[in-house]
Amino acid sequence: MDPTMTRSTSRNWLIPVLFLFLGVIPFIAQAAGEPFYVTFFARVLVYALAACALNVVLGFAGLVSFGHALFIGLGCYTVGILTQYGITSGWIQLAACIVLCGVVAALVGSVCLRTSGIGFIMITLAFAQMFYFLMVSLTVFGGDDGLNINEPSDFTVFQLSGNVEVYWAAWTLLLLTTIFLARFKRSPFGMVLQATHINPRRVDAFGYSVFRIQLAAYVLSGILTGIAGFLLANLTAFASPSYMAWQVSGELIVMLVIGGIGMVTGPIFGAVAFLVMEELFKGLTQHWMLIMGPVIVLIALAGRNGFSWVARFARRAPAQERQ
Predict the structure, then answer these.
(1) Which of 18, 65, 81, 238 is deepest in the core (most CB within 10 A)?
(2) Total domains present in the chain
(3) pLDDT of 123-152, one tens digit each?
(4) Which residues neighbour 22 within 8 Å (Cβ) at sequence distance 6 or greater?
(5) Which range of residues forms the domain containing residue 167?
(6) How far apart are the first and last CA of the chain?
(7) Which CATH number covers residue 160?
(8) Rounded CA gap, 11 and 264, in Å?
(9) CA dist., res. 224 & res. 56, Å (int)
(10) Can you give the pTM of this predicted structure?
(11) Residues 6+ apart with CB under 8 A from 172
């Protein structure tokens, strides 16, 4: 058997198994009479989508963006502000979210990508904090207290009016995004994008514009993160400047570190692990961060790619069977 085909097959079975597991959670929660688990895992799916978006620039292009929470906030406020003015159509809200996040990502990326390393990190952080304080100062939209969203996004056929509806919307979008990124990573553009991280000079020598390739990836990442914010707004029925805080960007990076930077399914494993550990440790003590911090450090030290041992096991299993 072709070893390339075997490796591809062993990688691909992870996705259906993972989403099958996530797909049965609402039914288990309903059978157990615990609706909290639907709400909790809906939040996990939303943050997994945002982490997948960050993985495009951090995992594939090697660009450490410490301001990606900006786009989560933009997605949330798009829903909140339009709802406040009586526009509850989900299609209009989603289109506005995509356009707004795309334009802001193009403008921010055009500035940030002219730097590298620590400069890129600090400028992305600066832009996120700039928008954070902008929303804090806009008292017409709630200011520091945030903005209540009284109407769900209406897509005519369905509404994101409950946790179950948001759960399935997030599950579907995350599945489509994962399939897309799996193909994107192996596409010619994806290969060139990864090469800009490994050897940008050689990419430039082959006639590709490193700046344009990375900017396109940054815009794509910003739009996907904004869609995650769109879902988060419907899940919490609330938009707050805190969604743009640098801590949220840090949490997304930690999710990638835990799950495996650059892996297609890494952000999903990372989001599940991070948020489940957070919930468990919060139940143990109010000083849960004292436990969370060392655990994350241990995971990072145990493996360069976090929980990538899952994928490595998946690749080794067929080889062991052949022996």
Answers:
(1) 65
(2) 1
(3) 999 999 999 999 999 999 988 999 999 999
(4) 41, 45, 171
(5) 3-322
(6) 13
(7) 1.10.3470
(8) 10
(9) 10
(10) 0.90
(11) none
